[in-house]
Amino acid sequence: MNRDERDLDQLHVVLRYCDRLEEAVARFGNSFETFETDTVYQDSCSLCIIQIGEAVNRLSGEFVSSHPEIEWSRIYGMRCHLVHGYEMFDAEIVWDAIERCIPPLRAFCEQQVA
Questions:
Q1: Sequence-separated (6 or more) residues with CB below 8 Å from residue 77
Q2: Is the dihedral of CA 96, 100, 102, 103 positive or negative?
Q3: CB-side exposure of 94: number of CA atoms within 13 Å?
């Protein structure tokens, strides 16, 4: 598999976990109040964000540098925070990522794979 194929494959992984995030929001409700108090909801969304961060980290340096409009390091940073932050989970930051950061990332990936 060449670099372009690997990048495309990782964009599909991002989209798959964006879909799963969307499913979680549809199931639990689009409410920060629910998200803030429901650890199962938090865990479901956190896993998706972690997987998105992993996929982003596997993109080639060439792809990442050719698309500076996406904040790749912040996406991976969120993954690292969720994985290594342990008891420092901040529901507001994660919810903000779900509402404000994931939709444009999804749109970007959809455009790239089309």
A1: 53
A2: positive
A3: 29
Q: What is the pLDDT of residues 1-51, one digit of tens each?
A: 899 999 999 999 999 999 999 999 999 999 999 999 999 999 999 999 999
Name the residue ranges covered by the structural domains of the chain.
3-113
Nearest of 5, 106, 10, 14 to residue 59 by alpha carbon: 10
Q: List CB contacts of 22: < 8 A, sequence separation 6 or more.
A: none
- Sign of the C-alpha dihedral, residues 62, 106, 21, 29? positive
pTM over 0.70: yes
